[in-house]
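Bench notes, afternoon.
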Amino acid sequence: MKKKIGISFTRTNFQYYWNWFSTKDLLDKVELIELSFEKNNIDDFEQCDGFVLTGGVDIDTTLYGGASSYEHQPDQFQRKRDLFEERIFNYSQFHQLPLLGICRGLQLVNVLQGGKLIEDIDEANLVHKKDGDIDKQHPIIIEKNSLLAEITGARTASVNSAHHQVVQPDALGNNLMVSAWSDDSVIEALEFKNKTGKAFMLCVQWHPERMQDKEQNPLSAKIRERFIAELKNK
């Protein structure tokens, strides 16, 4: 029987997430399911053996007590999406299923665990926010004893970047630990601190699904490989 990955729908660049799982990954072993806040296909959660929370529009600040107005704020939040993906996260945790959070996905997990975000990083946008359609590139430092270090075999790396919000370092979500930082102290990856009774969860601020060298770069290829391995063990 095929294992199924539920990928949360985003109105921006959704196809990158879908295409990240290659024909070689899928074959007759894995199937992808679009989980869409627009369709509200909650019943499809039950088919899934693991989940990917994707990037996209800023999270509604009312969910974490953030500012009502800030620089580079979107014209409209997608609160329906926030709540739909909260249900995905809660389902994954209740059923102990693997979860991978990417960019907005990382930020949402922090919020859902009771943490907060910095709404706009101002001058640091020069390092982290993409120019037009081009992602920025910058180095990160990976924590020695983290799950991310175990997966990638790396302590330093270069990643792509396309965001203007970050996790607030002094308002980390419950039971979360930082597994990577940028050299300007932006949190680049999160995982559970106490993993007892928890399924695999890794959240990254970069975009492994659209790295130019994603088939060779361990910060894309090895993360995807490990996620699929965890999925198959369920």
